[in-house]
Amino acid sequence: MQPLRAGKSMQTTYLLAIFLGGFGVHRFYLGRHVSASILLAITIVAVIAGTTSDSGTSPLLAVVWIWTIVDLFLIPAMVRSTRAPRA
């Protein structure tokens, strides 16, 4: 039986998600680099599309916000997975 690894902080993850969630920083912190990079890319595209549109906003920003809100509910499981021993 392997000992539990020291995991990431739940409080830090929540703070990163709340303040920098649209950039995927909380996912980078938890080691989920692929999904964090996708979220960051969507955010960059949304900002560029918003600055070039007449309305000044992009529907992709809704995707980013929804993803971030869903992540707020998924954070406990993601943090637990960083603390679990690997087989």
From TrEMBL:
<feature type="transmembrane region" description="Helical">
    <location>
        <begin position="36"/>
        <end position="53"/>
    </location>
</feature>
<feature type="transmembrane region" description="Helical">
    <location>
        <begin position="12"/>
        <end position="29"/>
    </location>
</feature>
<keyword id="KW-1133">Transmembrane helix</keyword>
<feature type="domain" description="TM2">
    <location>
        <begin position="7"/>
        <end position="47"/>
    </location>
</feature>
<feature type="transmembrane region" description="Helical">
    <location>
        <begin position="59"/>
        <end position="79"/>
    </location>
</feature>
<dbReference type="InterPro" id="IPR050932">
    <property type="entry name" value="TM2D1-3-like"/>
</dbReference>
<dbReference type="Pfam" id="PF05154">
    <property type="entry name" value="TM2"/>
</dbReference>
<keyword id="KW-0812">Transmembrane</keyword>
<dbReference type="GO" id="GO:0016020">
    <property type="term" value="C:membrane"/>
</dbReference>
<dbReference type="InterPro" id="IPR007829">
    <property type="entry name" value="TM2"/>
</dbReference>
<protein>
    <recommendedName>
        <fullName>TM2 domain-containing protein</fullName>
    </recommendedName>
</protein>
<keyword id="KW-0472">Membrane</keyword>
